[in-house]
Amino acid sequence: MEKYLKFVEGNILQFAPLKCIDHVLRLDPFLQFVLAIGINILIVSLILLYLFLKKRYIMKRMDILMSQKMNKISSLKKSCYRNISLFLLLSYPMTSKKIIQILPLPGVCVDMCFNEDGSECISLLKADYSIHCFTARHNVFWRIAAAFALYPVAFPLLLLIPIYKYRKSNPDKEEIAFGIRVFFENYEPKYWFWEIVEMYRKLVLISIILLDLPFGSENRYLIAVIAASVSGISYTICRPMKNKF
Protein backbone atom coordinates (compact mmCIF):
# COMPACT_ATOMS: atom_id res chain seq x y z
CA MET A 1 0.00 0.00 0.00
CA GLU A 2 2.91 2.32 0.74
CA LYS A 3 3.86 2.72 -2.92
CA TYR A 4 0.30 3.74 -3.81
CA LEU A 5 0.16 6.35 -1.07
CA LYS A 6 3.18 8.06 -2.61
CA PHE A 7 0.99 9.13 -5.53
CA VAL A 8 -0.55 11.65 -3.13
CA GLU A 9 2.71 13.62 -3.13
CA GLY A 10 2.38 14.25 -6.85
CA ASN A 11 -1.30 15.18 -6.58
CA ILE A 12 -2.44 13.29 -9.66
CA LEU A 13 -5.39 15.65 -10.21
CA GLN A 14 -2.91 18.45 -10.96
CA PHE A 15 -1.39 16.46 -13.81
CA ALA A 16 -4.66 15.04 -15.14
CA PRO A 17 -7.46 17.42 -14.05
CA LEU A 18 -10.98 16.08 -14.39
CA LYS A 19 -12.01 19.08 -16.51
CA CYS A 20 -9.88 17.60 -19.31
CA ILE A 21 -12.46 14.81 -19.48
CA ASP A 22 -15.55 17.00 -19.21
CA HIS A 23 -15.96 20.66 -18.22
CA VAL A 24 -18.77 19.62 -15.90
CA LEU A 25 -16.17 17.81 -13.77
CA ARG A 26 -14.16 21.00 -13.22
CA LEU A 27 -13.05 21.37 -9.61
CA ASP A 28 -12.97 24.95 -8.34
CA PRO A 29 -10.92 25.82 -5.22
CA PHE A 30 -13.93 25.22 -2.97
CA LEU A 31 -14.46 21.69 -4.25
CA GLN A 32 -10.71 21.05 -4.19
CA PHE A 33 -10.71 22.02 -0.50
CA VAL A 34 -13.61 19.66 0.26
CA LEU A 35 -11.92 16.90 -1.74
CA ALA A 36 -8.59 17.39 0.07
CA ILE A 37 -10.19 17.22 3.51
CA GLY A 38 -12.48 14.38 2.46
CA ILE A 39 -9.64 12.27 1.08
CA ASN A 40 -7.64 12.71 4.30
CA ILE A 41 -10.56 11.57 6.42
CA LEU A 42 -11.52 8.78 4.01
CA ILE A 43 -8.05 7.25 3.65
CA VAL A 44 -7.32 7.28 7.38
CA SER A 45 -10.78 5.87 8.12
CA LEU A 46 -10.41 3.10 5.55
CA ILE A 47 -7.02 2.06 6.92
CA LEU A 48 -8.40 1.96 10.47
CA LEU A 49 -11.45 0.02 9.29
CA TYR A 50 -9.17 -2.46 7.51
CA LEU A 51 -7.13 -2.80 10.71
CA PHE A 52 -10.26 -3.46 12.78
CA LEU A 53 -11.76 -6.04 10.39
CA LYS A 54 -8.46 -7.81 9.71
CA LYS A 55 -7.73 -8.01 13.43
CA ARG A 56 -11.13 -9.59 14.09
CA TYR A 57 -10.55 -12.07 11.27
CA ILE A 58 -7.17 -13.09 12.68
CA MET A 59 -8.54 -13.52 16.19
CA LYS A 60 -11.33 -15.78 14.94
CA ARG A 61 -8.98 -18.11 13.09
CA MET A 62 -8.78 -21.52 14.73
CA ASP A 63 -5.93 -22.96 12.67
CA ILE A 64 -3.10 -20.94 14.23
CA LEU A 65 -1.74 -20.55 17.75
CA MET A 66 -2.41 -17.48 19.89
CA SER A 67 1.26 -16.48 19.69
CA GLN A 68 1.02 -16.53 15.89
CA LYS A 69 -2.13 -14.44 16.05
CA MET A 70 -0.37 -11.84 18.18
CA ASN A 71 2.55 -11.70 15.74
CA LYS A 72 0.20 -11.27 12.78
CA ILE A 73 -1.76 -8.54 14.55
CA SER A 74 1.46 -6.77 15.50
CA SER A 75 2.65 -6.83 11.88
CA LEU A 76 -0.77 -5.61 10.75
CA LYS A 77 -0.70 -2.67 13.17
CA LYS A 78 2.82 -1.72 12.08
CA SER A 79 1.77 -1.67 8.43
CA CYS A 80 -1.41 0.33 9.06
CA TYR A 81 0.22 2.88 11.38
CA ARG A 82 3.05 3.38 8.92
CA ASN A 83 0.68 3.89 6.00
CA ILE A 84 -1.34 6.45 7.95
CA SER A 85 1.84 8.33 8.90
CA LEU A 86 3.12 8.26 5.34
CA PHE A 87 -0.19 9.44 3.91
CA LEU A 88 -0.46 12.35 6.35
CA LEU A 89 3.13 13.35 5.64
CA LEU A 90 2.65 13.35 1.87
CA SER A 91 -0.76 15.02 1.89
CA TYR A 92 0.22 17.81 4.30
CA PRO A 93 1.51 20.41 1.78
CA MET A 94 -1.42 20.07 -0.61
CA THR A 95 -4.03 19.99 2.16
CA SER A 96 -2.52 23.11 3.74
CA LYS A 97 -2.56 24.89 0.40
CA LYS A 98 -6.22 24.05 -0.23
CA ILE A 99 -7.15 25.39 3.21
CA ILE A 100 -5.16 28.62 2.97
CA GLN A 101 -6.26 29.60 -0.53
CA ILE A 102 -9.93 30.05 0.41
CA LEU A 103 -9.54 31.66 3.85
CA PRO A 104 -10.19 35.43 3.98
CA LEU A 105 -6.51 36.24 4.47
CA PRO A 106 -4.58 39.15 2.89
CA GLY A 107 -3.75 38.28 -0.71
CA VAL A 108 -6.22 35.40 -1.08
CA CYS A 109 -8.65 37.77 -2.81
CA VAL A 110 -7.59 40.31 -5.44
CA ASP A 111 -9.41 43.60 -6.10
CA MET A 112 -10.03 44.35 -9.77
CA CYS A 113 -11.01 47.99 -10.40
CA PHE A 114 -12.57 49.41 -13.56
CA ASN A 115 -11.80 53.08 -12.94
CA GLU A 116 -8.94 55.11 -11.54
CA ASP A 117 -10.61 56.27 -8.34
CA GLY A 118 -11.38 52.69 -7.30
CA SER A 119 -15.10 53.24 -6.89
CA GLU A 120 -16.01 50.33 -9.15
CA CYS A 121 -14.13 47.26 -8.01
CA ILE A 122 -14.79 43.58 -7.65
CA SER A 123 -12.95 41.10 -5.44
CA LEU A 124 -11.86 37.85 -7.08
CA LEU A 125 -10.35 34.72 -5.60
CA LYS A 126 -6.69 34.59 -6.64
CA ALA A 127 -6.80 30.79 -6.92
CA ASP A 128 -9.59 31.07 -9.51
CA TYR A 129 -10.45 34.44 -11.06
CA SER A 130 -13.87 33.15 -12.12
CA ILE A 131 -14.96 33.17 -8.47
CA HIS A 132 -16.06 36.32 -6.63
CA CYS A 133 -14.98 36.68 -3.03
CA PHE A 134 -17.37 37.15 -0.14
CA THR A 135 -20.38 35.87 -2.00
CA ALA A 136 -22.81 33.60 -0.15
CA ARG A 137 -20.97 30.54 -1.51
CA HIS A 138 -17.53 31.83 -0.56
CA ASN A 139 -18.76 32.74 2.92
CA VAL A 140 -19.98 29.18 3.47
CA PHE A 141 -16.72 27.55 2.36
CA TRP A 142 -14.30 29.90 4.11
CA ARG A 143 -16.15 29.34 7.37
CA ILE A 144 -15.76 25.60 6.90
CA ALA A 145 -12.08 26.12 6.08
CA ALA A 146 -11.73 28.22 9.24
CA ALA A 147 -12.53 25.09 11.25
CA PHE A 148 -9.38 23.53 9.75
CA ALA A 149 -7.30 26.73 9.85
CA LEU A 150 -5.06 25.46 12.66
CA TYR A 151 -4.13 22.33 10.72
CA PRO A 152 -1.24 23.83 8.65
CA VAL A 153 0.46 25.26 11.74
CA ALA A 154 -0.60 22.89 14.51
CA PHE A 155 -0.27 19.50 12.81
CA PRO A 156 3.57 19.51 12.52
CA LEU A 157 3.83 20.91 16.04
CA LEU A 158 1.65 18.14 17.48
CA LEU A 159 3.72 15.55 15.64
CA LEU A 160 6.73 16.54 17.74
CA ILE A 161 5.15 14.84 20.77
CA PRO A 162 4.95 11.25 19.42
CA ILE A 163 8.17 11.67 17.42
CA TYR A 164 10.08 12.72 20.54
CA LYS A 165 8.45 9.99 22.61
CA TYR A 166 9.16 7.13 20.20
CA ARG A 167 12.39 8.30 18.57
CA LYS A 168 14.49 5.84 20.65
CA SER A 169 11.90 3.07 20.95
CA ASN A 170 12.40 -0.35 19.44
CA PRO A 171 10.20 -0.44 16.31
CA ASP A 172 10.15 -4.23 16.42
CA LYS A 173 8.41 -4.21 19.79
CA GLU A 174 6.19 -1.11 19.59
CA GLU A 175 3.78 -0.83 16.67
CA ILE A 176 3.25 2.93 17.01
CA ALA A 177 7.01 3.49 17.08
CA PHE A 178 7.27 1.61 13.78
CA GLY A 179 4.64 3.85 12.19
CA ILE A 180 6.05 7.12 13.54
CA ARG A 181 9.52 6.24 12.19
CA VAL A 182 8.35 7.57 8.81
CA PHE A 183 9.02 11.06 10.16
CA PHE A 184 12.61 10.54 11.31
CA GLU A 185 14.06 7.25 10.03
CA ASN A 186 16.02 8.95 7.22
CA TYR A 187 17.68 11.47 9.53
CA GLU A 188 20.57 11.28 11.96
CA PRO A 189 19.41 10.66 15.57
CA LYS A 190 20.26 14.19 16.71
CA TYR A 191 18.14 15.60 13.87
CA TRP A 192 15.02 13.57 14.68
CA PHE A 193 12.94 16.76 14.32
CA TRP A 194 14.13 17.68 10.82
CA GLU A 195 11.03 16.45 8.99
CA ILE A 196 9.00 18.95 11.03
CA VAL A 197 11.40 21.67 9.86
CA GLU A 198 10.79 20.54 6.29
CA MET A 199 7.02 20.65 6.78
CA TYR A 200 7.21 24.22 8.05
CA ARG A 201 9.56 25.15 5.20
CA LYS A 202 6.91 24.01 2.73
CA LEU A 203 4.25 25.92 4.64
CA VAL A 204 6.33 29.12 4.58
CA LEU A 205 6.85 28.87 0.82
CA ILE A 206 3.14 28.19 0.26
CA SER A 207 2.21 31.20 2.42
CA ILE A 208 4.68 33.51 0.66
CA ILE A 209 3.21 32.62 -2.73
CA LEU A 210 -0.48 32.67 -1.74
CA LEU A 211 -0.68 35.52 0.75
CA ASP A 212 -0.10 39.26 0.57
CA LEU A 213 2.57 39.60 3.23
CA PRO A 214 3.93 42.93 4.61
CA PHE A 215 7.08 42.96 2.48
CA GLY A 216 5.08 43.65 -0.70
CA SER A 217 3.95 41.54 -3.60
CA GLU A 218 6.82 42.68 -5.82
CA ASN A 219 9.33 41.11 -3.44
CA ARG A 220 7.34 37.93 -2.89
CA TYR A 221 9.37 35.68 -5.14
CA LEU A 222 12.63 37.19 -3.92
CA ILE A 223 11.67 36.31 -0.34
CA ALA A 224 10.69 32.81 -1.50
CA VAL A 225 14.12 32.37 -3.09
CA ILE A 226 15.82 33.65 0.06
CA ALA A 227 13.79 31.27 2.24
CA ALA A 228 14.66 28.35 -0.02
CA SER A 229 18.33 29.37 0.01
CA VAL A 230 18.42 29.59 3.81
CA SER A 231 16.87 26.14 3.98
CA GLY A 232 19.42 24.78 1.53
CA ILE A 233 22.34 26.32 3.41
CA SER A 234 21.04 24.94 6.73
CA TYR A 235 20.75 21.51 5.16
CA THR A 236 24.28 21.71 3.78
CA ILE A 237 25.75 22.77 7.12
CA CYS A 238 23.83 20.31 9.32
CA ARG A 239 23.80 17.31 6.96
CA PRO A 240 20.76 15.79 8.71
CA MET A 241 20.28 12.83 6.37
CA LYS A 242 21.77 9.46 7.24
CA ASN A 243 22.81 8.74 3.66
CA LYS A 244 25.22 11.40 2.48
CA PHE A 245 25.33 12.09 -1.26
Summarize the SSE layout with pairings.
Layout: H1 2-5, H2 7-10, H3 12-15, H4 29-60, H5 66-100, E1 109-113, E2 121-125, E3 128-132, H6 136-147, H7 151-166, H8 175-180, H9 194-210, H10 220-238
Antiparallel strand pairs: 1-2, 2-3
Helix pairs in contact: 4-5, 5-9, 7-9, 9-10
What is the count of helical runs? Answer: 10
Mean pLDDT: 86
Q: Please summarize the sheet with the most strands.
A: 3 strands, antiparallel
Rg for CA atoms: 22 Å
Task: Give the assembly state of these chains.
Answer: single chain
- The coarse silhouette is flat
Distance between the termini: 28 Å
Helix share of residues?
55-70%
Relative strand content: 5-15%
Structural class: mainly alpha
> Strands across the major sheet, in which order?
1-2-3
- Count of extended strands: 3
What does this structure look like?
Keywords: Membrane, Transmembrane, Transmembrane helix. The protein has 245 residues and is mainly α. It is 61% helix and 6% strand. Strands 1-2-3 form a 3-stranded antiparallel beta sheet, with no helix packed on it. Helix 5 packs parallel to helix 9 (194-210) and helix 9 (194-210) runs antiparallel to helix 10. The mean pLDDT is 86.
Task: Briefly characterize the structure.
The chain is mainly α.
List keywords for this structure.
245 residues; 10 helices; 6% strand; flat
